[in-house]
Amino acid sequence: MKYSPRSEFTFVLTDAVVEAVLTAVRRGGGPLSTVDCLEDRYYVGKPSKRPSSKSRQYRIRRFGCCGAVALECKRWKDDLASLRQTHVDANDLPRLDSVNVDKKWPGKWFHKEIVKKQLSACLNVGFERTVLFPEASDNCRLTLDRNIRLRSPTSYDTLANSDQDAGFVSLQSNFLRMKFADALPLRFKRLLYEFQLLPVHPTALMTLAQQRLAWTESNPVASPNQVGTLNKETIQCQLG
To answer: CA 75 to CA 73: how far, in whole Å?
Structure first.
């Protein structure tokens, strides 16, 4: 399935700003809907020698304890994002290790990209997602990702049946994402103005995650879930 391009803004928030945003949403009568235990596995290839205005990410997404996973490719050009997504059985993920692509498998397009671009799994990210204003359509969506946990990928079985606390390193950042098809919705504008939110690059999660894991590896004495300092001056939105 391919989704039409939508505008998308990404913000990195401190815990204090998150609580203030949630308070503002509740004050405005906006309901909240929470989905627990999402997990993404990101794939990367060799760095391109030619600069491009487009960014893309390949990932496998698991929703809760579902036996199915989503194979996804997300592309950005400036503030426009498009998504290609296919659901497959988690037990079929070992197919991606083969150099031969099964043309009858629904996930063949994702497998082809892995083989063609020599992509390899680089990161697993678990998180809790809260949908703000869940009554809105997919063309107008506001999500908040918290309790973000990182680890290096191991086997495909862990993506399908992983313990959310096993072997994860905590990322002390929160991500707010605004997605909309047409003009910026008024409720989004109010949040932007009230909290003076400034968007970051949509792939900021990957950057922060890699920095966090690198810091953990360079400090082996620390506990895997120990809170560390992660370039707090780099990409964070502060109140007023």
So the answer is: 7
Half-sphere exposure of 24 (CA within 13 A, CB side): 16
What is d(CA 147, CA 38) in angstroms, rounded to the nearest whole number? 11
Give per-residue pLDDT as tens, 74-119: 998 877 899 999 999 999 999 999 999 999 999 999 999 999 999 9
| Res 230: pLDDT | 34
Helix, strand, coil % over all residues of the chain, rounded to 5: 25, 40, 35
Strands (E), 78-181: 80-89, 120-132, 140-151, 169-171, 174-180
The C-alpha atoms of residue 225 and residue 219 are separated, in whole angstroms, by 12
Spatial contact of 140 and 181, defined as CB atoms under 8 Å apart: yes
Angle at 196 (CA atoms; ends 194, 197), nearest 5 degrees: 115
Q: Which helix (DSSP H) or strand (DSSP E) does residue 50 occupy? A: none
Distance CA 197, CA 186 (A): 15
